[in-house]
Amino acid sequence: MNQSDRHHQEATLKRLDRFSYWTDSNIRIPFTSFRLGLSPIIGLVPVVGDFIGLVLSLYVLYEARRVGASKRVQLKMIRNMVIEFLGGLVPVIGDAFDAVYKANTRNTELLRAWLHEQLEVLPKQPFPWFTLLWVTGLFLILSLLLLALIL
After folding, report:
1. For 69-115, how does the pLDDT look when each residue is reduced to its tens digit (9 = 90+)?
2. 99 or 3, which is more confident
């Protein structure tokens, strides 16, 4: 993986972290450590709000496709989105479920884990035998020249 690809992936994760923060956890409930985002607030509007939340969640899937995430990772993301959408449709309880489930954050973490896994499975660069032989040969030639000058 070249530096440009790595930079692109880091930029994608940074955008998704911001997106997930705003949709899932940018508002702290006073006197608690619980946070919620715009997605559960939008989800308060029956059916339409949950549908808008689903459409917003497609952004994370879009970014995953752009960086080449595997079909398996994309299917897990879709599963998370459907779970949050269907869970959010249940009156009253669904809004609380939407605030707790945080599909965008889950999907961003899925993508992050996949990208880190890809970095670990990259083939190692072959040992530079040619460079080693060239440097060794150069060292021997310089050593012989130095020895000839000394004698």
Report:
1. 999 999 999 999 999 999 998 887 888 898 899 999 999 999 999 99
2. 99
Q: Find the Cα–Cα–Cα–Cα dihedral 118, 8, 40, 83, rounded to 10°.
A: -30
Give me the phi and psi of 43, to 5 degrees please. -65, -10
Could you tell me the pTM of the whole model?
A: 0.74
CA 52, 53, 59, 61 torsion-angle sign: negative
Vertex 82 angle, CA 46 and 50, to 5°: 15
Residues 6+ apart with CB under 8 A from 118: 1
Could you say which DSSP state residue 22 is in? I
Coil, strand or helix at 128: coil
